[in-house]
Amino acid sequence: MPAPLLPAGSPRLGLGLAALGRPGYINLGHGEDVGQGKGETAMQARASEVLDAAWEGGARYFDAARSYGKAEAFLGAWLRARAHPATVGSKWGYTYTAGWRTDAETHEVKDHSLSTLERQWPETLEALGRAPDVYLIHSATLDTGVLEDRAVLARLAELAASGVRVGLSTSGPRQAGTLRRALEVRVDGVNPFCVVQATWNLLEPSAGEALAEAQGQGWHVVLKEVVANGRLTARGLTGRGDVPPPLAELAAEHHATPDAVALAAALAQPWTDVVLSGATTVEQWKSNLRANGIRPDLARLAHLAQPPQGYWKSRSALPWT
Q1: Can you give the residue ranges of the NADP-dependent oxidoreductase domain (predicted)?
Q2: How far is CA 18 from CA 27, 65, 125, 161, 290, in A?
Q3: Listed residue (28, 33, 32) closest to 242, CA to CA
Q4: What is the pTM assigned to this prediction?
Q5: Considering the domain boundaries, does residue 226 fall inside one?
Q6: How many domains does the chain have?
Q7: Which residues contact 231 (CB under 8 A, 6 or more apart)?
Q8: pLDDT values of the chain reduced to their tens digit, one per residue, 321 residues
Q9: 56, 36 in Cβ contact below 8 A?
Q10: Which of 36, 91, 173, 301 lies 20 to 30 angstroms, CA to CA, from 115?
Q11: Does residue 166 sit within a domain?
């Protein structure tokens, strides 16, 4: 059984830097949140402000990736300046290609080959200024064959043997199948993986049973995209404030915002170790933080779930702003 991801008694709400490390992202209203401050210096200052607020609010788990623009470098600089003993997760397998533009034709390129792993691991070490505590295959899928690549698995097993907790993040309508395949991986008779980071939210809860299976086998479970890239916030499913009625009703009853209830629903899952906020601003983080005090009626929210194929089709249509 791996050691806990967080110190005993720590809140389970962490911070992901997908929207903080680059000027463009697919969260609803991201461009509005960032405003005119899209330069690297301004973005780093914003990231530091949100990181400070997150730490003050109890966050002890921080998540980045090679493809999140300068997220690893921003996080590393913040950690060195503050000397905080945080748990840090990062990911390999996507390369940032947008050149700090929001209108780039391609923002990131996926490649799960050994050569990418060997290139990106030292890049992560340099950017963070330390080894990450958790290191994940970024959006592993059955299609890329990464879970069958013996050379990649052997290298990840080496990292696991050195003390890094390795695993995978999942995306897409086949998350459960990918995770179940990962649970079967063996290198010299041992599964090197012990962490999964998956998309789970009230609209897309289909990975839940597989995540419970992973937790039952001693894995750590980290949840991402819990507010569905802004669709489970006050901006609503289309960015025009059309919040699903049950979510809006529960938010009003708890004197909170829809995002806080959506995050609380994720925190209520018994197999969850960490739930990531994707806040772009201090105000969003503070709104998210209300989740810690909410015990939502999950039965009233259950029918919000969408067929996975439809959910992921809608997600893929979200614009980068």
Answers
A1: 40-292
A2: 10, 8, 18, 28, 21
A3: 28
A4: 0.98
A5: yes
A6: 1
A7: 28, 203, 237, 238
A8: 668 999 888 999 999 999 999 999 999 999 999 999 899 999 999 999 999 999 999 999 999 999 999 999 999 999 999 999 999 999 999 999 999 999 999 999 999 999 999 999 999 999 999 999 999 999 999 999 999 999 999 999 999 999 999 999 999 999 999 999 999 999 999 999 999 999 999 999 999 999 999 999 999 999 999 999 999 999 999 888 999 999 999 999 999 999 999 999 999 999 999 999 999 999 999 999 999 999 999 999 999 999 999 999 999 999 999
A9: no
A10: 173
A11: yes
Evaluate whether residue 247 is within a structural domain.
no
Does residue 215 belong to any structural domain of this protein? yes
Residue 184, number of CB atoms within 10 A of its CB: 8
With CA atoms as reference, report the closest residue to 221 among 265, 178, 275.
275
